Structures are given as structure tokens and as C-alpha cells.
Amino acid sequence: MIEIRDLDECTTKDEIAEALSTSLSAQHINKETVKTLRKAYAGTQVAVAALPDDLAAKALKLGHIRIGWVNCRIRGREDTLRCYRCWSPGHVSARCKGPDRHTATAADKQAII
């Protein structure tokens, strides 16, 4: 997975997929490749795209991609499971054997993480 930052507020998933396809020379990239597109600070957006390992490595090597009028940063992203019940990584609450911390205060959570 890669994260594309500094997108213009008007950028769509189609434009991101087209730019990825062009810059990585891959024809099979479509808008379903872009998993999320969310608002960020100062009128920008952040997109997360799921690419095969070889294309993700190629994109990370580029470091930047031009989408519309903007040069956007590309970073790697790892999605790790985190249990909301005990706040430990690597499992979900359905299989949790740890202590119940889901009602902990913000200070408690900071100490746990």
C-alpha cells in the first residue's frame, strides 16, 4: 500500500488512477485501486492506493508523482491490526485475551501505546 499526500482538493480517484497508470507504465490500474481519498489540512487530500508489490516499490522509488497541477509525495503505508478492546497490535477484539481497556481515558491510552 502507498499513501499519496498533498493532493489538490479537487482531485478525484479517477485522476489518481490515471496518473499512477501513466507514471508506472501499468495499464491495469483503475479507480478501485485507490482505496481511500480523505480531506487533510490546508485544503489538501490524502489517498491510499493498494498496488502490487513491484508497482508499489517502483512508486516509492519515484518519491513524487504529478497529479493535475500538483507534485504529490508518495510514502509507504503498512496497515496493522490493532485491538480496540486492549489496544494491543496484531489481533482484533473478537480474539482478544488481554485486559479490557476500551473505556480508558486519553491519558491511560497514551501510557499504553
Automatic annotation (TrEMBL):
Q: Does the keyword Zinc apply?
A: yes
Q: Which residues form the CCHC-type domain?
A: 82-97
Molecular function (GO) terms for this protein are: nucleic acid binding; zinc ion binding
- PROSITE patterns annotated for this entry? ZF_CCHC (PS50158)
Q: Which domain of life is it from?
A: Eukaryota
InterPro entries, per the entry: Znf_CCHC, Znf_CCHC_sf
List UniProt keywords, sorted A-Z: Metal-binding, Zinc, Zinc-finger
What is the protein name given in its UniProt record? CCHC-type domain-containing protein
